[in-house]
């Protein structure tokens, strides 16, 4: 250690041929705090698995683009003069529109966001059912929820009773052939498997052929 009058103490260490080198302690570096983005400005991650509570449905709807979903509101009620609430047809249409809305918006919604969006298009007993279903099955996928909705609000008739009604269903005087075919297919939707089961579709085809022109049977398929 070398000390000179009127100067500060220097630490010397042999570097080359005994020449001392002074070292000084550097001042502490200034640490800049990490910038943490505000939660309000953070864009939602639509592919995340964050919880979507019932209370947050409105906020979620503001973040995602659902303007291309034009579905009617499903209540689960059976229209007067009908035996079916139309749950299967409604669900298939809603699911298709939800898929298209994501494509058009350039978004990808996870199951929880899809189910939260579904709740916006339900009311009455259907809305109450969904609330209970989400409580009882918190891990249910969007597709599983749709299947459960159809099962819950399917006709109270057996497959045999529905098939018999399809067989006896007449064409209404004011109906076009296309409308008659659509109505028969709607009735088929009440059977297990719906219109995806070719055996079910044949029931509608047989009725159509009996009550309409045979050459128009292609309308069914």
Automatic annotation (TrEMBL):
Residues 1-53 are annotated as: Disordered. Residues 19-38 have a biased composition (Low complexity). This is Retrotransposon gag domain-containing protein. Residues 1-18, 39-50 have a biased composition (Polar residues).
């Amino acid at each position: 250690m070398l000390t000179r009058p009127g100067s500060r103490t220097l630490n010397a260490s042999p570097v080359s041929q005994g020449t001392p080198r002074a070292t000084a302690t550097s001042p502490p570096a200034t640490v800049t705090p990490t910038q943490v983005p505000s939660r309000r400005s953070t864009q939602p991650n639509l592919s995340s698995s964050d919880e979507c509570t019932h209370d947050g449905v409105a906020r979620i709807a503001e973040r995602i683009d659902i303007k291309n979903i034009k579905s009617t509101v499903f209540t689960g009620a059976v229209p007067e003069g009908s035996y079916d609430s139309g749950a299967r047809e409604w669900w298939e249409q809603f699911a298709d529109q939800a898929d298209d809305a994501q494509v058009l918006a350039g978004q990808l919604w996870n199951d929880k966001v899809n189910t939260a969006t579904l709740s916006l298009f339900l009311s009455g007993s259907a809305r109450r059912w969904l609330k209970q279903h989400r409580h009882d099955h918190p891990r249910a996928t969007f597709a599983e929820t749709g299947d459960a909705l159809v099962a819950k609000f399917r006709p109270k008739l057996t497959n045999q009773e529905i098939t018999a009604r399809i067989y006896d269903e007449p064409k209404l005087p004011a109906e076009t052939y296309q409308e008659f075919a659509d109505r028969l297919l709607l009735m088929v939707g009440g059977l297990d498997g719906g219109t995806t089961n070719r055996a079910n579709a044949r029931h509608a085809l047989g009725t159509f052929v009996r009550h309409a022109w045979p050459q128009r049977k292609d309308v069914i398929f």
